[in-house]
Design goal:
By secondary structure, the protein is mainly β. The protein has a domain at 22-83: RNA polymerase II/Efflux pump adaptor protein, barrel-sandwich hybrid domain (OB fold (Dihydrolipoamide Acetyltransferase, E2P), Beta Barrel), CATH 2.40.50.100. Helix content is 8%, strand content 31%. It contains one helix and eight strands, in the order E-E-E-E-E-E-E-E-H. The strands form two sheets. The protein has a four-stranded antiparallel β-sheet with strand order 1-3-6-5, with no helix packed on it. The chain has a four-stranded mixed β-sheet with strand order 2-7-8-4, with no helix packed on it. Strand 7 (65-71) and strand 8 (77-83) form a beta hairpin. The longest helix has 8 residues, at 91-98.
Amino acid sequence: MAHKKGGGSSRNGRDSNSQRLGVKRFGGELVLPGSILVRQHGTKVHAGENVGCGRDYTLYAKELGFVVYETMPGGRKRVNIDPVEFVDYDEEEVTEEAE
């Protein structure tokens, strides 16, 4: 005869890995082309100017610039990249002005 009761079975004891979704670059940050801005399921945030949308709805920067989030009519959110404009200058003029 058994001298211990049988151990009960538990339906717990497992856990799934996190999916690491969410905003990766916030408003005002300077980003390089290809930088991931938002990882999401579905279009929680829509792609705006200079932003691409991947096959899994990942939003990424297409140009060097600053991240700008905005709310569209109807409560939808959109992310744009405000491109950085480079100024062409002449070194001789800059050194003359400094003197």
